[in-house]
Write a structure and sequence with these properties.
Helix content: 25-40%
CATH topology: Rossmann fold
CATH architecture: 3-Layer(aba) Sandwich
Low-confidence stretches: 1-22
Largest sheet: 10 strands, mixed
Mean pLDDT: 91
Distance between the termini: 40 Å
Number of helices: 9
Radius of gyration: 19 Å
Strand order of the largest sheet: 1-2-4-3-5-6-7-10-9-8
Length: about 290
C-alpha cells in the first residue's frame, strides 16, 4: 500500500467497529477459508493482533449458529501464519466448521516464566493478552463459548499450562505439544488436558534438563512431572498405560469433575509436529476435543 492509502485505511479503522485491521485478507494457500488479522485491544501497553480463520461459508452466513473455537499458539521464533500452515488447522477450520484463532507472540515468543526469549526476559503479561484475545474473538465471530479449545506448540505449549492455572474459566480443554510447565504453577480448576511429546525431543526432553537446550531456551522441567502434577492437582487415580502403534499413552481418569489427563509419547519423534501416518498431531488433538 502507498502511504496515502495506509493513512486512509487507518482513519477508517479509527471510526469503524473494533477489530478493524490494516491486514485483512491473509493468503494461507488454503481454498475455501477466510483468514484475517483482527486487532486485540491493548491491556498491557502493546499493540497486538490475532489471526482468525473460518470457512468462507461461515463468514458469509447472515445468522450462523455458534461453532467451536480453537486457539493455537506458535512456538519460539515462529509466528501465527506458520502455525496455521504447519498444523493444517487453517484447512481443518474450513472443513470441520470451527473458528481458529492463532495468537501472535511479541518478538515471536511467549512469556511462560522460565521460557522463552524476549517475552520471558521482559515479563510480558501474555495471559492478559490471551484473555483479551479470546474475548475479542468471541465478540466478533460466531463462537460457542462452551467449546473453546486451547492448543500450544513448544513455547506455546508452555503457555497452555499457564492459561490452565490462571484463566481456566475461558477454556474448555487444553492440548500441549512439545511443551512443559515451565512456570511451575498449580491448577485448581480441572480441565481435560492432553500432552503430546516425542521420546527423542532434545529441546523439551521428557525427563527435563538442567542446562540450556537451545538458544533462548534454558533448562526445562520434566514433562512427565508436569503432567503428573496436573493429575495430582485434579485428584486423579493412578494412570493406565497403553501402547497403540508408535504411541505410548498414560491416562489418568476419571479425575475430579470427571475430567481426564492424558500423556501421549510418540516413539521416534523429536521436537516437531508429526503429521500423517502413523501419527497425526493435529488429528489427535481434534479427536481429543470431539471435532473429528
Amino acid at each position: 500500500m502507498t502511504g496515502r492509502v495506509l493513512l486512509a485505511v487507518a482513519l477508517l479503522c479509527a471510526v469503524a467497529a473494533p477489530g478493524c485491521s490494516l491486514f485483512d485478507g491473509v493468503d494461507l494457500g488454503v481454498a475455501g477459508i477466510d483468514a484475517r488479522y483482527v486487532d486485540v485491544p491493548s491491556t498491557i501497553g502493546d499493540d497486538r493482533s490475532v489471526l482468525v480463520v473460518q470457512s468462507d461459508q461461515l463468514a458469509a452466513a447472515k445468522d450462523p449458529s455458534p461453532v467451536p473455537l480453537v486457539v493455537a499458539l506458535h512456538g519460539f521464533q515462529s509466528d501465527a501464519e506458520v502455525m496455521a500452515k504447519v498444523t493444517a488447522l487453517a484447512a481443518e477450520a474450513g472443513q470441520k466448521n470451527f473458528v481458529a484463532a492463532f495468537g501472535v507472540g511479541l518478538d515471536k515468543s511467549w512469556n511462560a516464566d522460565l521460557c522463552c526469549g524476549a517475552s520471558a526476559a521482559a515479563g510480558t503479561d501474555d495471559v492478559a493478552y490471551l484473555r483479551t484475545m479470546i474475548l475479542t474473538v468471541e465478540e466478533q465471530f460466531p463462537v460457542d463459548r462452551s467449546k473453546v479449545f486451547f492448543l500450544g506448540y513448544s513455547n506455546g505449549g508452555m503457555m497452555a499450562y499457564r492459561m490452565l492455572c490462571e484463566s481456566p474459566e475461558l477454556v474448555t480443554s487444553f492440548v500441549s505439544v512439545a511443551g512443559t510447565n515451565t512456570s511451575g504453577c498449580r491448577a485448581s480448576t480441572p480441565r481435560p488436558f492432553l500432552q503430546m511429546s516425542g521420546d527423542d525431543d532434545p529441546i523439551v526432553p521428557i525427563a527435563g534438563s538442567t542446562t540450556q537446550t537451545a538458544p533462548g531456551v534454558g533448562p526445562v522441567p520434566s514433562v512427565l512431572g508436569s503432567v503428573s502434577g496436573l493429575a495430582d492437582d485434579f485428584d486423579c487415580p493412578r494412570p493406565v498405560r497403553t501402547v497403540v502403534g508408535p504411541v505410548t499413552e498414560q491416562r489418568w481418569a476419571p479425575c475430579r469433575d470427571q475430567v481426564q489427563v492424558v500423556f501421549d509419547i510418540v516413539d521416534g519423534a523429536g521436537h516437531g509436529w508429526p503429521t500423517g501416518e502413523p501419527f497425526s498431531t493435529t488429528q489427535r488433538a481434534l479427536q481429543f476435543w470431539g471435532l473429528t
